[in-house]
Write the structure tokens for this entry.
Amino acid sequence: MKRLFTALLQELDSGHSAVLCGIVASQGSTPRGAGAKMLVLDDGDTIGTIGGGAVEYRAARMAVELLEKKESRFESYRLTPGDAADVGMICGGDIRVYFQYFDPADRAARTALEDALALLDAPGPSWLVTAMDGRGWRMGTCGRSRDLRGLEIPMERLEPLLGSRGMLAEDETALFAEPLVQAGTVYLFGGGHVAQALAHILAITDFRVSVYDQRKQLVSREFFPEASARICGPFPEALERVGTITEDDYIVIMTPGHQGDYEVLSQMLRTPAKYIGCIGSRKKIAVTRERLLADGFTEADIGRVHAPIGLPIGGETPAEVAVSVAAQLIACRSGRLEAFR
């Protein structure tokens, strides 16, 4: 979402209009669900996807028409083969798309996009809220403390929509609320090649990432351009320097050596983090286990650790290992991790 909103702001700053195609509701089996977005630029180029195939092709054509008309609208697509209204896909579901025309002169829309980008790097959950009616659309943001900006909507109407997935409530004025960032931060301890690849994958799958390493040259924007925080400090002081770890947070330990891994792991096991993973071989894990027991940790404590880290997909390169770890974190976020244990 950060890449898409950044591109949209750049277009508006250059004086170009654009249409944002967003799925606001879906039923049955569909390639993408509510919240999927595709940006269509005034030269016809697209960024992002709402599922590909015929529906995306038709949506892109519709967006080009609306760019010429300077209009926004709803459109529904049926993905059932053989139906008169279908788009030649066999998924068997239905999606509703809102085509949101952005005028470069609309300062309020640009402010909402700027707020959204800021929230993507801020702690705590946040949402993008769009109000749509016959007069067009208005957009705002809502942060962790329910501080709604850009819109005047009773919180009792908005609150039921602030969940972990995009939700649409239709009335005289339709409301669509979608999470910008879900609760929780992934803390990467160690900034090596696997961590660099992992940080990028996590960023494009809507995780907030914070990187910690005692090697100053690695904790930089050059190596981690998409991280929301980059912290340099000794591994024995990791918890003190990072601050509070909550039950929504994820811990990924991949320092350059066994000692660094142990120093971080022994601190993180004292937190309520929802996920703790540590890179390393089974032999290393066995040695670490004995050391943890000797230091007073229980079998239950040690059972919280995912080690070897990642899902067993057979990867070896840093990028492949990063994919396996990202997949495990996604499974944890979606509540499906136990299926892989």
Summary: The longest strand covers residues 18-27. DSSP finds ten helices and 16 strands in the chain. The first helix runs from residue 2 to 13. The mean pLDDT is 89.
